[in-house]
Amino acid sequence: MSDSVESGPRLTEALNAHAGHYLSAGRLIEKGETPYQSYEVWDTPQFGRLFRLDGYFMTSEGDEFFYHENLIHVPCITQDAPARALIIGGGDGGSADELFKHPSMTRVALVELDEKVVDIARQHLPAVHNGALDDPRLDLHIADGLRYVRETAPAAGERFDLIVLDLTDPIGPAEALYTEAFFTDCKRLLSHQGALSLHLGAPIFQPERVADLMDRLLAVFTIVRPHFHYIPLYGSLWGMACASDHIDPLALSADEIERRIAERQLRQLQYYNGDTHRAAFAQPNYLRQCLNPQR
């Protein structure tokens, strides 16, 4: 049996209508409302500094690497010298931090709708972004990601090696950024070796959502590789996907991945390596059924 649970206030989150999880709350640092959402910053016993939006756990300084390293390095290590990336969302700066570890990266455009998210990250989450929000290679836009992809970037002739959808769940305002039409718009901005990287949700608790997103990606891209990781803050196995017409993260051996990590001098990786890369694509039978329900 595990140790007894500490009494006191708790932070809870529903994974679906029938299940959820909680954390000991610790100390509230800041909370408020923006024109788009409510936010909270907590100092927690388990994860240290923790950030929530609309009651959903977003990131924490104690476990952010489980999410950000896999969202970024799975596609980037598959590419030859990725140089230009676009992040939609990601105002905490964690994805930008991982992108800047690649020495070939010359520019990252980060498009965050809610300026308060960036302000909170700068003030309260330095261990998540590690200064990436002030890196001279970062091109920060406080703007609508949908409009940026459909209007601003095409008008400027932009092309990206990687587009990262580092978004809240596909409900409410973010839902339009998970459609087949938006994936198609993103594809038009990709370079020849370009890829789209995004999270899919929890296959155990949200199987229909994961399957639907996979179907939409497969309608747009030739190669769609889902990969799965346990994210402690999210309380579950979590799905991500790398989608492209040209690169395949399954084509690399663990040894080749380790060679590229060493060649690029990717230091301070707390999760990602050649073995975890390969293992993340292995699918237990229940996951195969979730992703291919016709079987």
TrEMBL record:
Binding residue positions for spermidine: H68, D92
Active-site residue list: D166
Swiss-Prot/TrEMBL GO biological process terms: spermidine biosynthetic process
Chain ranges of the PABS domain: 6-245
Keywords tagged on the record: Polyamine biosynthesis, Spermidine biosynthesis, Transferase
GO cellular component: cytosol
The enzyme's E.C. designation: 2.5.1.16
Catalytic reactions on record: S-adenosyl 3-(methylsulfanyl)propylamine + putrescine = S-methyl-5'-thioadenosine + spermidine + H(+)
Binding site for S-methyl-5'-thioadenosine: Q37, E112, D144, G145, P173
Top EC category: transferase
CDD domains (UniProt xref): AdoMet_MTases
Pathway annotation from the record: Amine and polyamine biosynthesis; spermidine biosynthesis; spermidine from putrescine: step 1/1
Gene Ontology MF terms: spermidine synthase activity
InterPro entries referenced in this protein's UniProt entry, alphabetically: PABS (IPR030374), PABS_CS (IPR030373), SAM-dependent_MTases_sf (IPR029063), Spermi_synthase (IPR001045), Spermidine_synt_N_sf (IPR037163)
PANTHER family: SPERMIDINE SYNTHASE, SPERMIDINE/SPERMINE SYNTHASE
Function: Catalyzes the irreversible transfer of a propylamine group from the amino donor S-adenosylmethioninamine (decarboxy-AdoMet) to putrescine (1,4-diaminobutane) to yield spermidine.
Family statement: Belongs to the spermidine/spermine synthase family.
Subunit structure, as described in the record: Homodimer or homotetramer.
HAMAP family: Spermidine_synth
Protein name: Polyamine aminopropyltransferase
Gene transcribed to yield this protein: speE
